[in-house]
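Incident log, structure service

09:12 report received: a user says their structure output differs between two submissions of the same chain.
09:20 pulled the input from the user's history:
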Amino acid sequence: MSVKLGVAPIAWSNDDMPELGGDTSLEQCLDEASQAGYIGIESGGKFPKKSSELLPKLSQFNLQLCSGWYGANLRKNTVEEEKKLIQEQLKLFKECNSPCIVFAEVSGSIQGDPNRKLSTRPQMEKDEWDGFCNKISEMGRYLEDQGMPLAYHHHMGTIIETQRDTERLLDNTHDSVKLTLDTGHMLFAKGDSKSILENYNERLFHVHCKDIRKDVLEKSLKENLSFRAAFLEGAFTVPGDGCIDYDPLFEVLKKNNYSGWLVVEAEQDPAKANPFEYAKIGYKYLTETLSKSKIEVFKN
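09:34 re-ran on a clean worker, output below:
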């Protein structure tokens, strides 16, 4: 088996806080991602929205589009309304041969609000859960029919945050609803990524390899910081620079013959954490750890 290594552009430019990396060009991001060893990159706010512009740019730096974020509002919108809203990104991703869409529900999310503590994140009662799962299932079937799987991303500050939320979603949706496992977000929510990998292998489609600085995590939880304050404090980092041991996770991936993307992602202030240097740290750690697990890394 072999896996593909990609990286997220959020380390270079943060779409939620444009002042972080605002002056960094897309070309610098792509060039440094490629130099660090990655063969794929997820989409970001500075990326062209037309494949005729994006594909040549990616090709220039020998990169593939390995997915990207879509924030849905299915708690408010009908499925038909959401289908219309996703069309531009769906078209782009299909034409760029992306493996999936990293899909998350953001209505009511507090992830970008500096004044909202993590403990105040939105939650749903049973009736809303039932309706929401039906909507996600319908979107999953639709995107599967389009050849662009929905890979749901659990995320701090949203309605699907914890391990329990994630399991409940997967247990009550159609199997066309796949999973993006984010190791950093799962640990932040006090969850167990290894358990998810073991129990939901058939739904796993995409992996975000995000690490955590344990001392900052403990402070963030103890002081009930906002999500924004936590990442500005430095809660997230790349694999190899935090407290997550990826060896047991990769052993499960090997056992289950996972052959998708592993994407290094870490929201950090680029003025404090040089994106290129941290991208290299993440790549080095992943390649060495995968090698120990006898998992091959696919090369272009």
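09:41 both user submissions now match this output. Likely a transient worker issue. Closing.
09:42 reviewer note: The CA atoms of residues 246 and 289 lie 7 Å apart. The chain has a mean pLDDT of 96.
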